[in-house]
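FAQ: What does a ligand-bound record look like?

Like this one, built around zinc ion:
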Amino acid sequence: MEKKHEDKLEVEIREHSDADFFPEKCPSCGSEKIKRKTYKMRTIQDLGTPTICRRIRYEKVTFICKDCKKTFTIRHPLIPPRTSYMPGVIKYATLRILKEGDSIRRVTKDLNELHHVEVSVSEVKLWVDKEGKRGELNVDFSNEEPPKDFSGFISIDGTFKAATTKKNDLKTGTKK
Ligand SMILES: [Zn+2]
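The answer part, i.e. the structure of the complex:
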């Protein structure tokens, strides 16, 4: 008899929201009458194990000032703005490739199969290129998408300012 292959994959989801760092003041007029306007959910992949798939559910919030009606966003301190991968994933991949000498294909395969990170070879190559060391791998992967909802600190009419935020309790629930 064949051994039954039991697929006991646990999905671990952490939730983060910009609302946990609710802005104290409007960066434009200084009013404290701020409310949420819209939100967008983003899923960010984190490094899992063969039995745990890890994802971050991130709520990107657009706030509005009730006085001057300007809208703005904040930069969440734990969420990288331009990517759908947590920094640890990228660090892991680039360390293996650049320091341990593993191939990009091998590491991509391991990420997908052992760590439950869905990623393509070309994406991993971009990470490596960003580390600035493997210029000799001249494959053209020029299909990079522009950064999605980049929110460098805080954006009002295209200008970026640092926003002061009030830190509420971090919701770090683990769901199955
Ligand atoms: Zn305002």
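Follow-up question: can I read anything off the structure? Yes, for example: Residues 26, 28-29, 31, 65, 67-68, 70 surround zinc ion (CB under 6 Å).
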